[in-house]
Amino acid sequence: MAHFALSDIANEQFYASEQFSRDAAGLAGATGDPFRVFLNDWSVSGSGPEGMTMLLRAASDEVAIDLTAVSTKPPALQGDRGYSRKGEEVGNASYYYSLTRMETSGTLRVGGEEFAVAGLTWMDHEFGTSALEGDAEGWDWFSLQLADGHEVMYAQVRTPQGIGYSFGSLIAPDGTLIQLDSVQVENLATWRSPRSGAVYPIRWRMRDPTIGLDLTINAALPDQELPLTVLYWEGAVDVEGRMAANPVRGSGYVELTGYAGRGESIR
């Protein structure tokens, strides 16, 4: 299964599509050396040292991308040297690394119009065999790129009683990673999907007093719900606030699962 989404902020449009296939007859697959993940004509492939120059290609009826992303920082090994726990039970974990600042350029198509684009990309690679434990309902995941060269990753697993487990990191401009253990996230505003009826947070305040972090995070577009086989919200956000007494701005991506129920679909 592969998902492809594009947020057109200026025109307040969100596009999402999916494809399914099996690793047979060359329809889908993945290799580590050379790095390539593909499903039909959607693909991410790597070249150069450690495959850290990525070529991204995908197209649907309405939108398409053809991008080159070059990593400017070493991989950020999330958790304990890449071993990222997701709960208290033994083995409830994944292996997880991030390329948090990739200089990106290429083209995208929206409708019949093509645009030359340039900006920043964040790539996550997470793999494992465990599932959410106990009464976990879903998770909130934040990836934030700040204009001063820092990045923030934070995720929290929700239960009916509140936050069951959380983890995060701060990546410095030189690539040094600092574990964050004191992050607090407050939901400031919500949006109700007219399709599914699910209510998602779309504005947050994120604080960590140990590093002087105090950020306000706003969805760049409220409706970034993916109405696909698995229903969830994932989209672009804008960031402003302070870190270590210095004003900061930035952008990022947030993923929200479980707000429409476990594995629910509107189909």
Secondary structure class reads mainly beta
For this structure, the CATH topology is AttH-like fold
What is the 3D shape?
globular
Structurally, the number of domains stands at 1
Low-confidence stretches: none
The gyration radius over C-alpha positions equals 18 Å
Q: Could you give the count of β-strands?
A: 21
The share of residues in helices is under 10%
- Cα-to-Cα separation, first versus last residue: 17 Å
Order of helices and strands: EEEEEEEEEEEEEEEEEEEEE
Q: What CATH architecture do you see?
A: Beta Barrel
Helix tally? 0
CATH class placement = Mainly Beta
CATH superfamily: AttH-like domain
Explained architecture:
With 267 residues, this protein is mainly β. It has one domain: AttH-like domain (AttH-like fold, Beta Barrel). It contains no helices and 21 strands. It has strands at residues 2-8, 13-19, 28-32, 35-39, 42-47, 53-59, 63-71, 76-77, 83-85, 93-110, 113-127, 138-146, 151-159, 162-171, 177-180, 184-192, 199-208, 213-219, 225-226, 232-243, 246-256.
Sum this structure up briefly.
The protein has one domain (2-256): AttH-like fold, CATH 2.40.370. Helix content is 0%, strand content 63%. The chain has no helices and 21 strands.
Keywords:
single chain; 267 residues; mainly beta; AttH-like fold; 9-stranded antiparallel sheet
